[in-house]
Amino acid sequence: MASKNRMLVILALLAAAVAVGWYRSEVYSVPDANPRPQLILMTGGSSPYWQLIANGAQAAAKTDGADLEVMMLEQDEDVEGQTHLLSKLEASNVDGIAVSPLDAVQQTRFINELATDTVVVTIDSDAPLSSRLCYVGASNYAAGSLCARLVKEAKPDGGKVAVLVANLTKNNVLERKQALEEGLASGASAGENSDAVYEVVAVLADEGDLGRCSEQLTQTVEQHSDLACVVGVNSYHAEQIMAVLDKQNAIGKVKIVAFDTEDATLEGVEQGHIYATVAQDPYHYGYEAVRWLAHNSQRTGNQLPLMGTRSTVHISTRALRGDDVPEFRKQYRELLGEAAESPNQ
Length: 345
Fold this sequence. Notes:
Largest sheet: 6 strands, parallel
CATH architecture of the largest domain: 3-Layer(aba) Sandwich
Number of helices: 11
Low-confidence stretches: 26-31, 339-345
């Protein structure tokens, strides 16, 4: 009997020890100090340009140990669709959001609401009056100035210029347009024709509608038989410009300066139909935006950078002329294909 009682006491003590151990493990356990950041990237479309941004973002997420959800608009420049998505986001469920705002004014209040619960950065296009902590992308004013220099190279004697824009709400478009117009209106720089005068005769906003883009440009070309140059400020414009000028038998006569590096644009530059294009680096926009979020998204209060101390991360643009295309196309295709097998995609 005494042996049985002793066994019961031992079992009770073991059970108590197990219970105490469980309690201590629950109460005193140290939580994971570095959980995987939960991040969102919201693009402004689904064209190859945006896919490059997504690929760069996915590569950074893999490198920095973050879980990334890419929210890619089906239609480029769909302001209404993007605004709807922004209004439905639950910021409290994620550690950071990167967004390319298509309407800086209209969407600032949504960005501000998100920023009360999580870290927000803007990418490719900024909302400078919002509470975002950082903008990652080109200096679009510098890109517009480069575009003005290319127009002057293409038409050194001056002339009439038509400018195609997606819209007049997106911050990057507005900055490019402003710098282009100011650059064309400014005096000649070293090596430029001091007698040349450039006149912007049309700024054509198409809201991403390719039919509207083609129709408006056709009317402008017909109204200005002496048009000297057409500038396409968005990535899809180059192909539309070439198609319209081809129908008007004006390829070569009217110079083209484009933006970005879609296949049709690069082909046009290589063949001499496009004088030059302003090439951005969207892959590294995505990479740096997610890298910044991964490093800062789980900081709070005074751990975060002071507002404005790192307001921009600028990644340079460059001009591509015919001889530059083969090597650039090789690098472009490599980046476009990267992260295709990524588990974060």
